[in-house]
């Protein structure tokens, strides 16, 4: 029987890969995050995982499919995506959520 990936098995996407879901460049995604546009419907921030790549605490952003889905809805609420763009992003996310063998 097939099953969906669990959160612990979920693939992580680089900022470049995540930006492709939106047909945008990485800087566009960074600006939206910096401007506080990654929020849930209750107003709390969507925290993007960062893999530390140096001793200064900076790091590469890593996105899960759940993050990308939440960010897409957030950007639509902030009117930074239109309905057609939102549908395209969500279709791409859904295409990646392929059942895996148990």
Number of helices: 4
Based on secondary structure, the structural category is alpha+beta
Strand content: 5-15%
Main beta sheet: 3 strands, antiparallel
**Unreliable spans:** 1-8
Query: If you consult CATH, what is the topology?
Result: Multidrug-efflux Transporter Regulator, Chain: A, Domain 2
Describe this structure as you would to a colleague.
The chain is of the alpha+beta class and 102 residues long. It has one domain (12-97): Multidrug-efflux Transporter Regulator, Chain: A, Domain 2. 42% of the residues lie in helices and 15% in strands. It has helices at 15-21, 26-34, 65-77, 83-96, and strands spanning 2-3, 13-14, 49-52, 59-63, 100-101. A three-stranded antiparallel β-sheet has the order 2-4-3. A two-stranded antiparallel ribbon has the order 1-5. Strand 3 and strand 4 (59-63) form a beta hairpin. The protein is globular. Mean pLDDT is 83; it is low at 1-8.
In short:
With 102 residues, the protein is α+β, with helices and mostly antiparallel strands. It has helices spanning 15-21, 26-34, 65-77, 83-96, and strands at residues 2-3, 13-14, 49-52, 59-63, 100-101.
Give structural attributes.
102 residues, alpha+beta, Multidrug-efflux Transporter Regulator, Chain: A, Domain 2, three-stranded antiparallel β-sheet, two-stranded antiparallel ribbon, globular
